[in-house]
Amino acid sequence: MNILRMPRGVIEPLELSVQIPYHFRCPISLELMTDPVTVCTGQTYDRISIESWVATGNTSCPVTRAPLSDFTLIPNHTLRRLIQDWCVANRAYGVQRIPTPKQPADPALVRSLLNQASTLSASFTSRLSALRTLRQLARDSDKNRSIISTTNVRQLLLSIAFSNHENRFIDLSHESISILSMFNLSESECAFVGSVFERVTYLVSLLFHSSIEVRVNSAALLEIVLTGTRSPELRAQICDADDIFIGVVGILRIPLASPRALKIGIKALFALCLVKQHRHKAISAGAVEALMEKLAEFEKCDAERALATIELLCRIQSGCAALSAHALTVPLLVKIILKVSERATEYAAGALLSLCSAYEQSQQDAVAAGVLTQLLLLVQSDCTERAKRKAQTLLKLLRHSWPQDSIANSDDYACSNVAGF
User: Fold this and answer.
1) Backbone conformation region of residue 288, classed left if phi is above 0, alpha if psi is from -120 to 50, else beta
2) Which helix (H) or strand (E) holds 282?
3) Once rounded to an integer, what is the mean pLDDT over residues 340-368?
4) Which among 175, 180, 246 is positioned nearest to 211, based on CA atoms?
5) How many angstroms separate the CA atoms of 20 and 86, rounded?
6) Are strands 74-75 and 36-38 parallel, antiparallel or unpaired?
């Protein structure tokens, strides 16, 4: 009996096992197929497996080794329905029915939608409908976004987004920005937005829109433009826009913010704070309070970016002062060490080093929060060398802040590997 290898999103049984029919398994992954497709040689594979096979440079059929003269993947609907029936028949074993996959967007349909959306003589309703259909296709899958990106979609959407902001056309602009927020822009496209003051201020104004989705999409596009712009002068010019920091920080402070809002909010704030001469605006906009409020809610990647932002803010006097004054800053940074990831640990240690170097109160707060134990664990861990160096420097800085009876002043500590840094 073979233990069932479950498709993504299916709950694996703890003790029961079931035989997967041989022809339901993908020849590449040997797992139950969730989206079977047939190639030109007549062999059937799971879509994700054969796409990965081709993407890595393979040009032959994995089973027959015959050349793939045509890379078209034809959905095998009959086999997929048989697999779904088998899943239902075996639900007593914990098998859940695989979903019916959405088929990739037809390139001809994408071109038609773009043409309809960009035709000025077309009715407002038809243009808006085309954009909304295009947005849904883009949201459905990476494959669809890849198909859409092969057209001149970004240039057309940029034109629609910034060409007419009259009330009767404003929804066209919002839909275009929503779609653009799902794609990377070229440097010239970023310059198209960032180098024109009116376009930047328009996006900033949308950060205060009554619709949370409009606000988040605007922040996403601003972040894309900032990170896609190589010119330091242009990045500084964008960051100098009135209220841009207030608008971005406001997204982080939305009550019960969605994971997407938090992700885009912290990405945009980090991109803004990379421009050193404008970091003080983040402090004035309430970034410290927002970061402390949301730090525990971020997913791993976003937590790393939030901690990197905190470390950046520690590098300016007003930021260091505001972070030190916040009651949660030091305890949270101490707690995060070795808890999230190596990067998060490195950023947290760097921020603590800046705070404790500047303020005696931060030293006392760190010691009270148990930083000694955390740092000793850190220097003995497999974390990055940079994180260890920061920890060692911080240990040395805090040595005289520890209580008399602590390990800091013990003979064991004096002889330890971390005492001689």
Assistant:
1) alpha
2) helix 279-284
3) 94
4) 175
5) 9
6) antiparallel
Beta carbons of 338 and 378 less than 8 angstroms apart? yes
Are 246 and 282 in contact, with CB atoms under 8 Å apart? no
- CA atoms of 21 and 278, how far apart (whole Å): 62
Residue 120 gets which letter from DSSP?
A: T
Query: Which pLDDT score, from 0 to 100, does residue 405 have?
Result: 52
**What's the CA gap between 26 and 37, in Å, rounded?**
10
**DSSP secondary-structure letter at 16?**
-
Ordered alpha helix ranges (H), 56-120: 77-89, 107-118
> Alpha-carbon Rg of the chain, whole angstroms?
27
> Do 177 and 206 touch, CB atoms closer than 8 A?
yes
Report, as an integer, the average pLDDT of 25-41.
94
What are the angstrom distances between the C-alpha of 282 and each of 40, 269, 311, 340?
Answer: 56, 8, 13, 25
- In which order are the strands placed within the sheet that holds 36-38? 44-46, 36-38, 74-75
Phi first, then psi: what are they for 104, rounded to 5°? -60, 150
Give the Cα separation of 157 and 226 in Å (integer). Answer: 18
- What is the DSSP annotation of 205-243? HHTT-S-HHHHHHHHHHHHHHHHT---HHHHHHHHTSTT
Tell me: the pLDDT tens digits for 373-416?
Answer: 999 999 998 888 999 999 999 999 988 866 655 544 444 443 34
- Who's near 259: CB < 8 A, 6+ residues apart? 299
Which residue matches tokens 């002062």? Answer: 321
Q: How far is CA 86 from CA 11, 82, 97, 239, 248, in A?
A: 16, 6, 8, 57, 49
| Cβ-proximal residues to 366 (8 Å cutoff; 6+ apart), any chain | 330, 334, 352, 355, 356, 398, 401
Model pTM score: 0.79
HEC string for 345-369? HHHHHHHHHHHHHHCHHHHHHHHHC
